[in-house]
TrEMBL record:
Name of the protein in question: Immunity protein 52 domain-containing protein
Pfam families: Imm52 (PF15579)
Limits of the Immunity protein domain: 27-237
Domain of life, per lineage: Bacteria
InterPro entries for the chain: Imm52
Length: 243
């Protein structure tokens, strides 16, 4: 079973233009959180993806005090600053499919679209690499504190939402707004995410709590789809074009 975390964000103007080192530093913070749930996802596990197997083990991405100098040099050397966006791809060095993981990251898009990253995790059905929904939601909460995203989702590759022009809810979705049970009665759980000052930044809406979400389980799909319809009826689920 493959679960994917997707996150879309915009860097606040006051932070200025971020470079590879800045973005990798945020990813490193996130891998420290992941490593607490699965040692194969911790900060020491990650490498730059390469064109060959040998190349893909050549550059560890993180050292104890930040992104590795060699990895940064490779990214800065290979980048074409006229590209429509900057990107990098990481993997955790595990060849066994149920232990592997990858991160795809995009930023500085010249078309004005939001920056984004995704984390792909494969596990033996019907399990989840990050465990129960409460642990997955905790990971999402920590990611929200790092990136302050426009939205974040957890779903499976074979899941299809109701609205092609909007993100699907999948297993869970984070939206930067305060939501209540009255607004989303179909949700199995609502989790508020607070900033460092204990002010709520947004809400994680969970569609399934009785086990890992599956995009091939009709009940799971119905639950997620019902939440999508409810959110769209209240203009709470953004269109991709508006992100």
């Amino acid at each position: 079973m493959s679960h994917e975390i997707h996150l879309q964000f915009r860097t606040p103007p006051e932070r200025g233009r971020l470079d590879f080192e800045d973005h990798l530093a945020m990813v490193q913070r996130f891998t420290q959180i992941l490593g607490a749930e699965d040692a194969l996802l911790g900060e020491s596990a990650w490498y730059l993806c390469g064109d060959t197997k040998d190349d893909s083990y050549r550059y560890p991405v993180f050292r104890g005090d930040g992104p590795a100098t060699a990895a940064l040099a490779v990214l800065n050397q290979e980048v074409d600053w006229d590209d429509v966006m900057k990107s990098f791809a990481l993997w955790n060095g595990q060849l066994e499919i149920t232990k592997g993981a990858s991160i795809s990251y995009y930023f500085d898009r010249t078309d004005g679209a939001a920056s984004a990253w995704s984390l792909a995790l494969v596990s033996k059905p019907p399990s989840s690499r990050l465990g129960a929904w409460t642990r997955v939601a905790k990971v999402i909460s920590e990611a929200v504190k790092i990136w302050r995203p426009l939205l974040a989702t957890v779903d499976t590759r074979n899941y299809e939402g109701v609205f092609p022009d909007r993100p699907g809810v999948g297993w869970m979705i984070y939206l930067p707004t305060i939501l209540t049970e009255h607004q989303v009665p179909e949700a199995r759980a609502l989790i508020g995410v607070e900033d460092e000052g204990n002010q709520q930044m947004g809400t994680i809406v969970v569609s399934v709590t009785d086990g890992p979400f599956s995009g091939t389980d009709p009940e799971h799909v119905r639950s997620a789809n019902a939440i999508e319809v409810r959110l769209v009826d209240q203009d709470l689920l953004p269109r991709y074009v508006d992100l």
